[in-house]
Design goal:
This protein is an alpha/beta fold. It folds into 2 domains: 98-206, no CATH class; 229-464, Rossmann fold (3-Layer(aba) Sandwich). It has helices at 10-37, 44-49, 51-148, 154-171, 174-192, 199-204, 207-221, 245-254, 299-306, 312-323, 339-348, 351-354, 416-419, 422-434, 438-446, 448-451, and strands at residues 2-5, 230-236, 264-270, 276-282, 331-337, 358-365, 378-384, 403-408, 454-464. This is GPI inositol-deacylase PGAP1-like alpha/beta domain-containing protein.
């Protein structure tokens, strides 16, 4: 298991070092000011009155001032060194990240150039070899069918085996896949098309800009609808208190499990302090069709939301917030799995939405949300080391004090998509709670007013697009 960010993360430790360095510099200055404000030792008149006493007092005062000035200088110097150390750590970390990105880009560029230059040599033989292999497979299938009357479908099995090898390699290297998807892909495209390695060209082919280009293209072609959907409201059974992180996740999964179209659920929770708060559960993807249709929890919502553009589910959530009577001062917790986490984080990062509701906590499970700037909103992200979906945005979640990412060891699964399943995450979250993982324990303490409250009212909201 690996943890990024939070109270024990790199950025939090840097903040602590900077805070301590500033405090020491301030203390050193204060001690120096006190020394300078201390009255001078007895004058010449005291020397005439009592030479021995005057000498003792003069010696004691001189020793005190010298030691105190030395202490002031030492404290100030220690504070300055702490600040310099923090700056050094941050610079080294940034340099390491930059070197990693440059290395990934250079490797991608080299591969792209190699493919472009050698294409005339291998393209035709590769096509011939592929057709020959397909022909041999077809012949083998035919012979076995004639002999036994049953086709073993060698072709399908071969493709399935190749896909399995690829998926396992992907699952075992999700971190590298994320870097390749961003810097490596940019370098490969630059080298493949023979483009000059200029910053605008490099940036245009990174994961974020490519996603935005895909969203704009889909909207322009009509594949991704842009009209707000109709939002239907339903009264739901409140149920008991969620009680824990796993309780939150179980309700989240129920928002889309077994449905063609997921629903946003809003629970009004009366906390132990008597104050009403709200938990908003945002559903995951239920429809993987590329062209947007009636259902709003679809691929169009995924692409548009990740591209930081308006999407159908963002509209549904805003409508749910408004119709539930949630005001700007009401505290809200978002819970989202996969697409639900993307939508939740995108709204938490939206300055206009933050005027509509006070999002205090966001919980995401298996969601690629590293490119959203949520400000000071607290975030807990749960991921698995073999799940490739959180890596699709081409970046890690930020290392911030208010954002904790737990990358847990995946339970035994057959494929990366298996690692992304709601059942796999249910098992992971329960294991984190059983082992009393420190960040999960802290999450429960920080949100006891949400988890330990009474659900007084629940409503569900479904977005439906018009049929064309």
């Amino acid at each position: 298991m690996r943890v990024i960010g939070g109270e024990r993360g790199f950025s939090a430790r840097l903040e602590n070092i900077r805070s301590a360095g500033g405090a020491l510099e301030s203390l050193g200055g204060t001690v120096g000011d006190l020394v300078r404000a201390t009255p001078p030792p007895p004058g010449v008149s005291s020397l005439l009155d009592s030479p021995v006493t005057w000498a003792k007092v003069e010696y004691a005062c001189t020793a005190f001032f010298m030691r105190t000035r030395g202490l002031s200088d030492s404290i100030t110097k220690l504070g300055t060194q702490a600040l310099l150390a923090a700056a050094g750590y941050e610079t080294a970390d940034s340099a390491a990240r930059a070197a990693q990105q440059i290395g990934s880009w250079a490797a991608g560029w080299g591969l792209g150039v190699a493919v472009r230059v050698t294409a005339p040599l291998w393209a035709v033989p590769a096509v011939i070899a592929a057709l020959t292999a397909a022909g041999w497979i077809a012949v083998a299938d035919g012979l076995v069918t004639l002999a036994t009357g049953n086709s073993p479908e060698f072709g399908k099995k071969a493709m399935a085996a190749a896909r399995g090898i690829f998926e396992q390699a992907l699952a075992n290297n999700t971190g590298a896949f994320s870097r390749v998807l961003d810097s490596g892909l940019s370098g490969f495209a630059t080298g493949l098309f023979g483009l000059p390695p200029l910053p605008p060209i490099i940036d245009a082919m990174r994961a974020g800009p490519l996603t935005r280009s895909l969203a704009r293209t889909g909207e322009a072609s009509g594949a991704f609808p842009t009209e707000p959907p109709e939002v239907r409201s339903y009264k739901a059974t409140p149920g008991g208190s969620p009680g824990s992180l796993s309780g939150l996740y179980e309700r989240e999964v129920a928002a889309h499990s077994g449905r063609d179209n997921g629903r946003v659920r809003v629970d009004a929770v009366r906390g132990p302090d008597g104050k009403k708060r709200y938990i908003v559960y945002v559903p995951a993807t239920t429809d993987w069709s590329v062209k947007g249709g009636r259902n709003t929890t679809d691929t169009a919502t995924n692409v548009q939301t990740m591209a930081q553009r308006e999407s159908a589910m963002r509209h549904v959530v805003r409508t749910a917030i408004k119709e539930s009577g949630i005001g700007p001062d009401d505290e809200v917790m978002f819970v989202g799995y996969s697409q639900g986490g993307i939508v939740a984080a995108s709204l938490a990062a939206d300055p206009e939405f933050r005027k509509q509701a006070n999002v205090r906590q966001v919980v995401t499970v298996g969601s690629p949300i590293g490119r959203f700037d949520v400000g000071n909103t607290k975030v807990l992200s749960i991921e698995q080391d073999r799940d490739v979906i959180p890596a699709l945005d081409g970046t890690d979640n930020p290392d911030k004090r208010n954002w904790t990412t737990i990358i847990a060891d995946s339970p035994p699964v057959d494929s990366p998509l298996g690692a992304h399943s709601s059942d796999a995450y249910t098992e992971v979250i329960r294991d984190l709670e059983k082992s009393r993982q420190p960040d999960v324990v802290q999450f429960s303490k920080d949100n006891r007013d949400f988890l330990g409250g009474t659900v007084e009212e629940s409503r569900e909201f479904e977005g439906v697009r018009k049929e064309k």
